[in-house]
Design brief:
With about 325 residues, the protein is of the alpha/beta class. The chain contains 13 helices and nine strands. It has helices at about 5-10, 15-30, 65-80, 95-110, 125-135, 145-155, 160-175, 190-200, 230-250, 260-265, 265-275, 285-290, 320-325; strands at about 35-40, 85-90, 115-120, 135-140, 175-180, 180-185, 205-210, 255, 280. An eight-stranded parallel beta barrel has the order 1-2-3-4-5-7-8-9, surrounded by six helices. Strand 2, helix 4 and strand 3 (about 115-120) form a beta-alpha-beta unit. It binds S-adenosyl-L-homocysteine and iron/sulfur cluster.
């Protein structure tokens, strides 16, 4: 698929796009849906991304889960036969934080659950330590693959190059690497989105999480809300992005993200019908879940209809793309 083909699909040129993408998923990796229990570890963050409700400058109450709260959520995941958990939180470089994550990952890995981390940019050494402790997947969205757009929403020195380096370091450390973008950010064009998909193919990613941009109150980007497409259009574009990526990379894991359900109660189900194969039910304790306000109207509950789909209980659901890449010796990748 070339850029022109992608642009045509993004503009709605194929009414069968979602059905074709779901069929491509079924043919490549089957209709299985995998669950990851999401644990929102902490809303303390060293970065000040202009769109994010838990950015460094946000004044809302800060929290960090205690180990025993995390282990309680892990127990829930085990009792409910989930195969994996995701530990997500703000970017924090404090040695005590890095040690604590290493320790907790080691504890969780004893249970046999698959562990995904999403804790931002860290040093190669930290990535290695967490991997050796038992984490096998890492989510770090590129957010916007266009350098100028990236720098607009992350106005720090060298930020784009650091992001790219972190993605390479993760691959180097041995993780299944997931990335993704927000869709419908002010100043983003449909050409940007086409290039985002090409970026993900060129990076040969194993997993992807993409969601619509949703305004977070009291953030600098909220001032540009007049530039936004309507929410329903941002949702539709996200579904198209998921479907096109599924056609481009049939055997990767693609998440039906929570932000989709913030716009439409059916959002995550619609993503599954457009080719997604991973859902992350939120297992964070309630008070913390309320304080982890990346954006407004964050859904607090999973749409239970998802559990009536082909959910594979007790399976880790590793990226088939990763396994294929690992077993094809001598294959090149561009990360
Ligand atoms: N700090 C880590 C993980 C937590 S943020 C990191 O940044 O990687 C997880 C994701 O939330 C980010 O990648 C971003 O794409 C998304 N996010 C943040 N603010 C958002 C908003 N206003 N609307 C939609 N998604 C948002
Ligand atoms: Fe921090 Fe992640 Fe939010 Fe950026 S998106 S401010 S790194 S939590």
């Amino acid at each position: 698929m070339n850029r022109g083909d992608i642009l045509e699909l993004l503009r709605g040129g194929d009414k069968q796009l979602f059905a074709r993408a779901a069929a491509a998923r079924d043919a490549a990796i089957g209709p299985a849906i995998y669950l990851r229990g999401l644990i929102e570890y902490s809303n303390i963050c060293s970065k000040d991304c202009l769109y994010c409700g838990i950015r460094k400058s946000s004044i809302s109450g800060k929290y960090t889960l205690e180990s025993k709260q995390i282990l309680r959520a892990v127990k829930y995941a085990i009792n409910n036969n989930y195969g994996s958990i995701v530990l997500q939180g703000g970017e924090n470089y404090a040695p005590a934080h890095i040690d604590k994550i290493e320790h907790i990952v080691r504890e969780i890995s004893k249970t046999g659950l698959g562990i995904t981390l999403s804790l931002g940019e860290q040093s190669p050494e930290t990535y290695r330590r967490w991997f050796e402790a038992g984490a096998s997947r890492y989510l770090l969205r590129i957010e916007a693959s266009d350098r100028a757009l990236y720098e607009k929403i992350h106005p720090y020195d060298d930020s784009y190059d650091r992001r790219l380096k972190a993605l390479r370091d993760l691959r180097e450390a041995g993780y299944q690497v997931g990335t993704g973008v927000m869709i419908g950010v002010p100043f983003q064009t449909v050409e940007n989105l086409a290039n985002d998909l090409i970026f993900m193919r060129e990076m040969d990613i194993d997993m992807c999480g993409m969601g619509p941009y949703i305004v977070a109150e009291n953030t600098p980007l909220a001032a540009y809300s007049a530039l936004l497409e309507p929410e329903e259009m941002r949702l539709e574009m996200t579904l198209r992005m998921i479907a096109i990526l599924r056609l481009m990379m049939p055997d990767i894991n693609i998440a039906a993200t929570t932000a989709l359900q913030a716009i439409d109660p059916d959002g995550r189900l619609r993503a599954i019908d457009a080719g997604a194969n991973v859902v992350m039910p939120n297992l964070t304790p309630t008070d913390a879940k309320k304080a982890y306000t990346l954006y407004k109207n964050k859904p607090m509950e999973l749409d239970m209809r998802i559990l009536e789909r082909n959910v594979q209980y007790g399976e880790r659901g590793d990226s088939a793309h990763f396994s294929a890449r690992k077993s094809s010796c001598g294959s090149e990748n561009n990360l």
